[in-house]
Design a protein that fits this description.
Blueprint: H1 3-11, E1 16-20, E2 23-27, E3 42-47, E4 50-55, H2 60-81, E5 90-96, H3 98-106, H4 108-115, E6 117-121, E7 130-136, E8 139-147
Parallel strand pairs: 5-6
Antiparallel strand pairs: 1-2, 3-4, 5-8, 7-8
Helix pairs in contact: 2-3, 2-4
């Protein structure tokens, strides 16, 4: 019997039968504390008989989604500093490093919906735009916005 089978036996409340020195012993579940241990790439939490495991490895798709969400946050901050009304539609102008540019392109519809953007251009902002330059996760971005007419 391996450790995993022994843990399952004890967690079910059944005694674990062990032989040592030619003698047989019953180890009762209340005499043992069984702890879940996460394998590489997982995070584990337990509460009594319940165990939850989460995959902690980031796929390229999840990383790109995270960049897109962070970009949205930066645009929302820029909307505030530009004193826009919460319902105002905008046009966005984006100059970004390759990784962030790719993440924005992959999630452009989501970004536009979340930021009320009617037009998103990968180009320099016009002179009348509110502009912010920032860096996150090693990616640089310059974002400009103007209120849509």
């Amino acid at each position: 019997m391996d450790a995993e089978e022994a843990a399952r036996t004890l967690q079910s409340g059944s005694p674990l039968k062990v032989k040592a020195g030619g003698e047989a012993f019953d180890i009762l579940a209340e005499e043992v504390e069984v702890k879940a241990q996460a394998r590489a790439g997982f995070a584990v939490a337990e509460d009594g008989a319940y165990v939850a495991a989460l995959v902690t490895d980031l796929t390229p798709e999840l990383a790109a989604e995270g960049l897109a969400r962070e970009f949205i946050r930066r645009v929302q901050d820029l909307r505030k500093t530009a004193n826009l009304d919460v319902a105002d539609r905008i046009e966005l102008f984006v100059e970004a490093s390759a990784g962030l540019n790719s993440a924005i392109e992959a999630h452009v519809d989501y970004i536009k919906a979340e930021t009320l953007t009617v037009k998103l251009s990968f180009a320099a902002a016009p002179a009348n735009a509110s502009v912010v330059e920032d860096e996150f996760e090693g990616d640089k971005v310059k974002v400009g916005l103007v209120k849509s007419q």
